[in-house]
Request: fold
Amino acid sequence: MTQATQARMTPPLEDLFGHAEIHADAYAAAEPFPHGVYDGFFDVESLHQVVAELPGRNESWTTWDTANEWKHCFDRPDRFGPAARQLCDELNGSEFVRYLERLTGIDGLIPDPHLTAAGYFEIEPGGFLNVHVDFARNPKLSLVRRVNVLLYLNEGWAADWGGQLELWRSLDDGPVRSIVPLMNRMVVFTTPDAPHGHPRPVASPDGRSRLCFSAYYFTSPDKADSPQARNGVLFSEQPSHGGLGGFARRVTPPIAADWLRAARRWQRRRAVR
Reply:
């Protein structure tokens, strides 16, 4: 094991609790929904190792290519490198979960060791994620989703490359806050009723992608404050900046749809140059 993976990635427990105490009130009062943005929270050298371990595109990746999103997801902790496994273990560990409870005011949080629909997210130039509200129920665990943690891993990311995380008040208005995905920047927010996304295609140079590591936290559906469970993601009905719409997908044969998806990717890349 390398020295980077031996180092603790998250702060010690007393510092975690101190951070939560300092920021809990601001988190609860944040607009458009409870959230916080925290820089330098993790050991940055360890995060560089998490990036270095990222494998090339293979069968472990899932690609989402629709009118609402074009992204790649790697959510197989059993195939992570040692640094990413350590990061996953610390995010799912008791100390970090207790920190999140104090920060968010939500007791009884439960992590997902399987990283269902979480883990690494990579957005290539031209990629995007339309504004949406998350699924509310984890079907594997039968738990209700309550908190998202997004950790950005983009060294030297320029704001004009896009990829800003937008926080909206509802699915039919516009951004209240825009967050540049900088290296070692953690965003925590209460979900599922929290419209967010990055609808404008990423415009980074060739060879640079928008990289994020995510983890989600849940509570029992029996909790009195548990939100109504919803299995699916709800996307904004505003026109996406990503190209072809849903109607075209519904009326297009599968072979032609594959060609259209390839054409859409080419259009996105061309649009950001």
